[in-house]
Amino acid sequence: MTWSSAIYVQFPDEATSRVAAAAIGVDFPEDGSVPTGNRNYAMHAPMQAPWITEPVVDPDAGEVTTPGAVEPGYWAMLRLHTEWPGYAAAWAAIQATGAVRKLESSPVVWA
Prior knowledge:
By secondary structure, the chain is an alpha+beta fold.
């Protein structure tokens, strides 16, 4: 089984991300929780948004002297099973949302 590289997406809010996820076949349980995946995809949502500006911490006091700022919105990370027959359509649908983001360094370690 082969998987795509990590795909990072940024949506304005959770509701918008759920609509986009449902369009690629993500089934949300009745309790409203976010699924982590199946044989076709793996997903981590919400994920911590990347920093625009990292906070500054006084190394002696261990206190934040300047608060940081994170990218706005609802962020998620996913991978798609590249041998899944729906892979090309799902990847095209994700790209069509305009939500795909490239990150210089990953804020999440994918296990």
